[in-house]
Amino acid sequence: MSKKTVNHKELCSVLKVLCLLAGLVALVPSGFVSASWALDVWDGSVAEGYEGGDGSSDGPYLIKTGGQLSRLAREVSAGTDYTGKHFRLVDDIDLAERNWTPVGYRENDPSLPFCAAFDGGGHRISRMRISGNIKDAGLFAYTKAGFSVKNLNLEEISIDISCSYYASSAAGGVVGYNDRGTVADCTSKGSIAAASSSYSFAGGLVGYNNNGTVTGCSFYGSVATSSSYYPSFFASAGGIAGGNSGRLSGCKSGGSVFATSSSFGSTARAGGVVGSNNGTVTDCSAAGGVRATFTGNKGSVYVGGVIGMSDYRDAVISENKFSAAGTGQKWGIGLDGRLSPTGPSNNGTVEGDID
After folding, report:
1. Residue 27 lies in a domain
2. Do 139 and 175 touch, CB atoms closer than 8 A?
3. pTM to 2 decimals?
4. Which domain holds residue 342?
């Protein structure tokens, strides 16, 4: 076997390159690699403070860890609504499938509102788990006027709540019950389920959107809701919002939507975008399966590729698209290629193409 002769000039060149690389590494600030690349995995603790900031628009409170996010939840649940304050997420957070207490949630009492501006900074919060006897569930339980959230991504989330006492339930990836707040440019991926003995709402982004605005958002996963026991109530599920009396625009949903009800005279409503609509839905799209069932006496089922049921005469539904396949009574908006509302319980003005 012949021996290969070592070229000393080549060896010197290689050594020079290695030395140069070593010098560059030495110039990197201490802690830079870990700070930039390490994903914070929440251990269930509550931080003593935020990462920084004073809550102003120029100096928002900074949230970097699960402990700091948990601190926000605890303080809002204690009565601090942070009206006029600003928050910014500055890193990805893994909630590690620990049971998350929604921001503003209080056990056995009505949720307290969060009224601040929350900028997700394009970061993601993953593996959020919420379960139990909870009325309003999401990253935020209950939000009011002054609240806004933008540029936030939720991944691998799981919400499964039941409200056994005489009250409605609302579950959404970002917000359970949004009262006049704004949700913009957010994504939600995972499974969301809500059950109640009365009204029950479940949506990919928002459980119920009460005169609020949801724009430029998307959901991928499954949504399910059920209502039982009390008569004349309903279960409502939608890919973006379970119920809407505000404004939805430019949103996309991909996944399955299911609603079921069993009490006397109740209804099950399922829509690719919204289950029950009393507001405006424009330029939204849905793809996936939409299904609703009723197993009691004298009940109704409403299914639509876009909206399950629209029962407000001033509602406006325009420029929406769907490829969702629906099963149930053909009283929804966007079913079997129909443009106009059909059936006695759908009202409002439908404009543009629904295809």
Report:
1. no
2. yes
3. 0.83
4. 55-351
